[in-house]
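Hello again, I could really use a second opinion on something today. I've been staring at a protein lately and its backbone has me curious. Please have a think about how the structure follows from the sequence. I owe you a coffee for this, so here goes:
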Amino acid sequence: MSTDYTAYLRAAEQAARLAGAFLREHFFSFKQVDEALQHDIKLQLDKESQELISDYLLSAFPESSILGEEGTDGLAQSDYCWIVDPIDGTVNYFYGIPIFCVSIALQHKGKLVMGCVYDPMQQECFSAIAGHAPTLNGQPVAVSSRSCMAEAVVFIGHGTHDGSGEAGIRRFAHISRQVRKIRILGSAALTLCYIAAGRFDAYVEGRICLWDFAAARVILEAAGGVVEFTPQAEDAVRGSILAWNGRIPLREALIMD
């Protein structure tokens, strides 16, 4: 008998909205930096947002565990694992750019089964249970019907921060000549959800973490898209990703002489 994940999805949506309201409230406030890296920032609000989410989810489902960007919590050996990114787009958030989100996925016995991504500034909530139609604020969404690269809007990660160096820049230039527009949001989860909603058509990134895309992967695949994640050999939560609407010839377009 299959498991009904509806209650889990409702809890994820509530937790995401709770954290989203907290982040929106502090959007224009001073933000304490815990760690400043060359291409990333860690905020105290990241930790506080994850604590809000963890407290809510573990209160609702005490037999579950949490795997988040800001650490783990709950029962380590649970069959139910929440995968949380409390602020996807932290650099945007820190600089006052209103493009970021809260991302919550559920993994059951190692399989991603549910995802919720909430954009608190646009108040857009993308959600899906694997195998069921995804929604945006309760309304069904689906990937675009575009099948030609020349009509596509895509995200192409590039530069030294994704580990690709000059190869990443060459890939960016190679694809940019083939498509209608390149767009870089600064949030992996929102980018995948935009593909799910037909706004974008593809996403290519050389380095990404599981919590960045887990929830949005469920949503995009439920919307008819394709996601290919290649983990690093030494670390299953980090790797590279290809995601697209399942119609444009993305793999062929990436081939370079």
